[in-house]
């Protein structure tokens, strides 16, 4: 479970409702009891419901009929329902809808990627990067995990990852063995992950035997050749593909033999279409 502090969910609400709902106030309907329900028009992997529940209960609403994060829902299925006064219902409406639409869009996209990958490799995995839309990192994390993906790096202090931009500052940027040996010495409990930008760099990196080698923006043909040579150079090294990996491009890489893909594409998926219905009672909900 990803923990959202009260301050974090309050911030999601306060973007929209700090001044209350003027229309509800002007109509004088705020004290009327009502019910609000959120429906996933398209269906797919749901996420954001736990966050939605926390937001709704913060407004004094009672939540019922909530589907779990990660649950597969059918088109038109209800995700969550809230009961309370009309003022609180209208305040929660758009803020919660936004969270559900964005979260469900991310989880649905990644779920489709994973389904495609696992038809070929049942043990395949997709790791999502820390390059989320600014301000959405935690919301993105819960959506990725709900879909069954993993987080590539929660932050730059979490794992060792040697980029070319690090090597540029070394006296010999092409000394892969020296760089990897230093990283192992100074971070002995961490796996050593390195990234190569060209096939030549990839082969040089493999000779230094990192734990994981990321191939950045390689063509399927280039990746296939690295897979062919890797067992003789670094038999225990895990290969991963990164850079431009999307739902549209994934299929072209499935013959490479690589089972780990790294991407930020789900963060930019189209939002889900979430229908919201409010009523003074349960009729029509």
TrEMBL record:
One of its GO terms (biological process) is quinolinate catabolic process. GO terms for cellular component: cytoplasm. Residues 112-276 form the Quinolinate phosphoribosyl transferase C-terminal domain. GO terms for molecular function: nicotinate-nucleotide diphosphorylase (carboxylating) activity. Residues 21-104 form the Quinolinate phosphoribosyl transferase N-terminal domain. Keywords: Glycosyltransferase, Transferase. CDD domains: modD_like. Belongs to the NadC/ModD family. This is Putative pyrophosphorylase ModD. It comes from Citrobacter portucalensis.
